[in-house]
Amino acid sequence: MPLTAAPSETGDVSAIIQKNIGLEGPLLPILHDVQAVFGHVPDAARAPIANALNITEAELHGVISFYHDFRREPAGKTVLKICRAEACQAVGANDLSEKVLKLLGLDWHGTSADGRITVEPVYCLGLCACGPAAMIDGKVKGRVTAEALVEEVSQ
Fold it and tell me: Using CA atoms, how far apart are residues 96 and 117, in angstroms rounded to an integer?
């Protein structure tokens, strides 16, 4: 039975599977496309994907949970990713993270009640010489402060 998107969403998991099934290693392209359509990988999409690829839902869960970019719930309108790699930790990323989370009243992977902001850890943005680093909606920023990040994502 195909999983059809809710009326407010476009796309269909079965169509996404069929589009990618012929690729070598179709799992990641399927998951990326499902997340692009739904904003996350809905639990209801797991069985059709696992069945189509002849893998268990446990194996599928292992892949989804291994890659930090896949979400079980939709992200907020603005996604703030804070680097947690060693080079950024060496220049204050831990303190930065704690302060940002406190100022926003969120935990890692948390989304604000109004759905505007999601905060996620990331393990290297490639700005090691400019740490601590963060990314807001795909735009990287170096030598950031907690106050500046919170101000920018709260606008």
Answer: 17
**pLDDT tens-place values along the chain, 155 residues long:** 344 444 333 348 999 999 999 999 999 999 999 999 998 999 999 999 999 999 999 999 999 999 988 998 999 999 999 999 999 999 999 999 999 999 999 999 999 999 999 999 999 999 999 999 999 999 999 999 999 999 999 98
Which pTM does this prediction carry? 0.78
The structure tokens 């080079």 sit at: 87
Residue pair 33/16 in contact (Cβ under 8 Å)? The answer is: yes
CATH of 78-154, one of 3.40.30.10, 3.30.420.10, 3.40.50.2000, 2.40.420.20: 3.40.30.10
